[in-house]
Amino acid sequence: MKRRGYKWMGWLLALCWLCAFPTQAQHEVDVQEIVFTHIQDAYSWHITEWQGREISIPLPIIVRNEAGEWSLFSAERLAHGNTYEGYHIAQTGEYAGKVVAQDVTGAEIRPLDLSITKNVCALFISCGLLVSLVLGIAHWYKRHPMEVPKGFVGVMEVLISYIQEEVIKPSVGKHYHSFSAYLLTVFFFILLNNLLGILPIFPGGANLTGNIAITAVLAIGTFIATNAFATKHYWKEIFWPHTPIYLKVPLPIMPFVEFFGIFTKPIALMIRLFANIMAGHTIILALTCLIFITAAQGVLIHTGMTVVSVFFCVFMNGLEILVACLQAYIFTILSANFIGMAKEE
Amino acid sequence: MSLLTPDSGLLFWMLLSFGIVLVILSKFGFPVIVKAIEERKAYIDHSIESARQAEAQLAHIQAECAQRLEEAKAQQNVILREAYAEKERILEAARQEATHEGQKLIEEATRRIREEKAQAIREMRGELADLSLSIAEKIMRQNLGRGTAQEEAINRLLDEATISKS
To answer: What residue spans define the domains of chain A?
Structure first.
């Protein structure tokens, strides 16, 4: 056991040494920039750099200008600050990192941008993966009626049964059947994207559930599922809640608070998921950057900090896997509870 | 801050793809799986229930068998006891019959013997009377004349003799 520990330590030191050399020659690292470019969207999918050459997947840019003309071209044409068909990627200002056009005065304006960015591409991959996984499992059940699955399908059955029996059924109440497909889809969508986000290389690595647009759509889904099928009792509790009359009649304080609550609930869902996943990515990236920051401060500090960084990164990745499952679970159970409250009679 | 403003392009693609995923999965995905799991659960529950019922039925049949056997044994005992009693009764009757028959035979035999004895005595008496008469005659012929008074006297004497003898 002890010898094995030494062996590991040796490997780790060798790894640190390897990391130490190529970085020594480089200029100062801008941690903020690295972290922000990693957790934000991009027009090409950067994979790695190999012998000074960037390896990335250029993605299609789809934009519409003020005149209503659509343009479709590869992101490669805008690389290194190039301009193509009047479009370029803004380096600074309000639209930094986005495709912009210039109007007659020379000011940067944002066209309607439906580009297949890194996040959109990751979204397509994860959606395709999710659909094929779930349809594959459904197909298994069709081919094997009355059989108990093993392996991957068995694990998925445990998950689906758990969400169905322990989360959806008790939270939503007797009308759970109409909402179970939506809630299960949300759960597996978030779980899959959270886990793919933790993967550091190509099919994963996009910060999808840590992007507010994604969580906003999910929250809108829950908002619609909650309010579109709500009972009379639910609306009565909002506009005429069970509180002392002076809180309702001259000034509708409680109705206002309750009405506001309709919107704060999904917004809380949106922010919670977005912030948790984004924070996780940020911490892991910052810990990784620690290696490169300390490169300039001598071999001893660099080695020490590298060991610390790797240990913390391993710990944070483990934590992030937990958070990935936990946040998917929390989003699902809270959505189920909101729907359940709206279905109360 | 651009982190908190949702990007319209991503919003559009997310709405589109999540909508498609939701439609596909809520039509062909999760309901199929959930239904299959529920059906299997119902099937297993049903199987367990029928197994339990079969077991109960079996136990019931076994109990009935045991009861039948017990009843049959009891009946056998009753029949055996009855047969034994019948045998005893028949034997007793036969014994009585035999005794009765024997007694009758003995009585008959006794009666016959008595009758035959009486007849023999009667015959013997006649013969004796004749014999005595002839003896007396012979004597009287020699000594006295033959008279009825004497014959009577001899008969009386003979009677006395035979009565005292028998």
So the answer is: 56-116, 118-342
